[in-house]
Amino acid sequence: MELSIQAALLNVTDLQQSIDFYRDVFDLRLTSQDEEVAALMVSETNRRQVLLLRELRSGSHRVGRHSVGLRMLSFEAGSPNELETIEGKLVERNALVWRKEADTYRGLMGVDPDRTEICAASSLTGSPISSEDWRELDDAIYAIE
User: What range defines the domain where residue 96 resides?
Assistant: First the structure.
């Protein structure tokens, strides 16, 4: 079976602020927007991948480690240069949390305006990050709130 993630839904506190963040940092294209919901295109190759943002009304949300739901969103950049661009934009926003370099890939973690952890990584080999690179889980996963 070959699957890909079609869409991820993030609840946010300020829809426009989150749209601006994902458009600026990750160059995602806004495909549609309603009063409280927006769709941003992550990838348009083979299968479409979409990031959905939904603004929650004030007081109707809870954040943090003990909440059920998405706690991290991670992207694979197409090249180390693209990853450097993302890193620079996170630094400009004072949103970079950490970076790591392994033998075959480099990764970084930042936070979006609602403090959701956003990761990005890129292979250093010229090929996509391999299944082998996922055999050892990084301790940083335990730091995610």
Answer: 69-145
Residues 48 and 12 in one domain: yes
Task: Give per-residue pLDDT as tens, 14-37.
Answer: 999 999 999 999 999 999 999 999
| 7-12 and 49-55 strand pairing | parallel
Q: Is the pLDDT of residue 91 over 80?
A: yes
pLDDT exceeds 50 at position 76 = yes
Q: Left, alpha or beta for 64 (phi > 0: left; psi -120 to 50: alpha)?
A: left
Residue 103 covered by a domain: yes
